[in-house]
Amino acid sequence: MGQFPSGHAEALAVVEARYGSGFRLREVTSRRGAVVWEAAGTGGRFAVKIGTSDGAAAVSRETEVLRALGWSGHLLASGRGADSAWLVARWFEGPSTWDAFARFRENGTGQRAGLGAAAELCETVAGLHGLGWVHADLQPDHGIHTPGGVRLIDLAWSWREGMRPPPVTGVGIDHLVPPELALRGAGDMPLDAGRAADVYTLAATLWTCVTGTWPLDYRAAGITPEDLTSDQLRAQIATGRIPLRTETPWPELQTVLQQALLSRPGDRPTARDLAQTLTRLAP
Questions:
Q1: Based on the number of CB atoms within 10 Å of its own CB, is 264 exposed (0-12), middle (13-18) or buried (19 or more)?
Q2: Which pTM does this prediction carry?
Q3: pLDDT tens-digit map of 61-84
Q4: pLDDT at position 1 over 80
Q5: Is residue 138 in some structural domain?
Q6: Is 127 helix (H, G, I), strand (E, B) or coil?
Q7: d(CA 230, CA 228)
Q8: Which residues share a beta bridge with 79?
Q9: Is residue 157 domain-shared with residue 85, that is, in the same domain?
């Protein structure tokens, strides 16, 4: 059982109002100044996200995004401190997309479940795009497959037309960022990730879930990512000259993903195109 962070009485009050004092707290992630906790008790489970310093801006922005999206039951409460921000959100029950491919990565089985999860994730992203929104930080753990459908999480950098893209540094996982955006997001340069960029990251995310490796073949390009800073690695990715890895444990699925990863932004399929193509692959 974890300790609730001090200095966040409002967030604690929200959790205690639902559970009393008998809840359990487990730290889930901690990065870029934002910590996510799972609060669990007899009344269910909730996510508590607390950001300090630079992380406060990200948590505040995620609150803004969730309010604008208006997804029922997702955001439960939020608040700000002098140098912090917090939110309490629904905890979605189900495996992540990464988890949905675990059997395939381990022993090559579970293809039907994996393919279904991939198509569902693409369809959910297509629905978000249809609302005029871009996620801008898709990752293997950012889609949760619930009985009611896929729920997207970690929306701090999502934006829509009419909303200024967030001025941030190095959003997303370096290995999943499309070449055309690899040098964006530096300083006050806005991360204007559009739908085509989202589709690249969506395909890269699924490639990673299938293979357990990043899609780019750094060794073939003579690059050792561990020896580079994030900015140096992104500069290499921005050249567009790093080939895809050649290992294809699932050729039919990876051929579809290759088309999205190798196409120019204007020629990439849409998320709905990907969903429909993957659905047709089902046996």
A1: exposed
A2: 0.91
A3: 899 999 999 998 899 889 888 788
A4: no
A5: yes
A6: helix
A7: 6
A8: 86
A9: no
